[in-house]
Amino acid sequence: MSDLRNAISRGHYARKQLFSSDSLVAWSHGRRFQTAVAIAGSFAGCRILDYGCGDGTFLALTMMQSEAPAIAVGAELQRPSVEECRRRYREEPRLQFVMVRDLETPTHRGQYDAVFCMEVLEHVVNVDPEVERLESLLAPEGKLVISVPVETGLPLLIKQMVRRVAGWRRVGHYPGTSSYTFAELAASLTAGPSQHITRPVFDSGDGPFHDHKGFNWMAMRDRLSRRFVIEQCLASPISWLGPRLATQVWFIATARGAGPRE
């Protein structure tokens, strides 16, 4: 266990988020990981995939639990990220890391009892092909677990303030955020399930992506509902507040036509 803890602490994102010097940033991200690990406990002894695994923190945390998966695979776009995870977690044979493009092979398609995709889809410009890919990786009756940020209503105001302060202090993972005009902010505070403002698109050389500005979790929920039955909707960091007052929202879903999990 100590080897895994040490490996987690050396992760790029873990250092800036989970172990942030800003206590509010560390608490919020810590609660998000706690929620993810609790959900993963339902898949003890199973095969799980983390699509967009980052530095592998979530998967390593699952392996530290008594109800751990049999195999946990992390997928990332960039080879340096995959190789870095392989090096840090080389002592844990149940952890594997692959390139996203490798998921197209029969080794992965239809093989996972649960596919996690956390804090990824809000950055994707063309969401539908990504959701289709996630579905193709699920075993029959497998579960899709998605988390996305809440960037509407009161949480948006709170998060923007925290991000700005953290960015000024150079802590966390918030070097800066896209600004809102007054009209954009008003639309975001009162947003419903339709996309409420035009989202900016960036390209750092690896392809187009969104930042958090203008992301609408309700629109994402409705988009997912076209292909999946959403069985649970959870919130973090404080679950009883519900998604409209949370910083993250979670969807646990099965593909339409899939039978119930026993």
Task: Count the domains.
Answer: 2
What is the SS-derived class? alpha/beta
What number is the mean pLDDT?
Answer: 91
Poorly predicted regions: none
First-residue to last-residue Cα separation: 31 Å
Q: Give me the Rg, rounded.
A: 18 Å
Topology order in helix (H) and strand (E) letters: HHHEHEHEEHEHHEEHEE
The portion of residues assigned to helices is 25-40%
The name CATH uses for the topology of the largest domain is Rossmann fold
Which architecture of the largest domain per CATH?
Answer: 3-Layer(aba) Sandwich
Question: Would you give an account of this structure?
Answer:
Helices cover 35% and strands 21% of the residues. It is α/β, with parallel strands linked by helices and 262 residues long. It has 2 domains: 191 residues, Rossmann fold (3-Layer(aba) Sandwich), CATH 3.40.50; 57 residues, no CATH class. The chain has a 7-stranded mixed beta sheet, with helices on both faces. Helix 1 packs antiparallel against helix 4 and helix 3 packs across helix 4.
Concise synopsis of the structure shown:
The protein has 262 residues and is an alpha/beta fold.
Write the layout of secondary structure elements.
Blueprint: H1 2-9, H2 12-16, H3 23-40, E1 47-51, H4 57-63, E2 71-76, H5 79-88, E3 95-99, E4 112-118, H6 127-137, E5 138-149, H7 153-169, H8 182-189, E6 202-203, E7 208-209, H9 217-224, E8 228-236, E9 248-255
Parallel strand pairs: 1-2, 1-4, 2-3, 4-5
Antiparallel strand pairs: 5-9, 6-7, 8-9
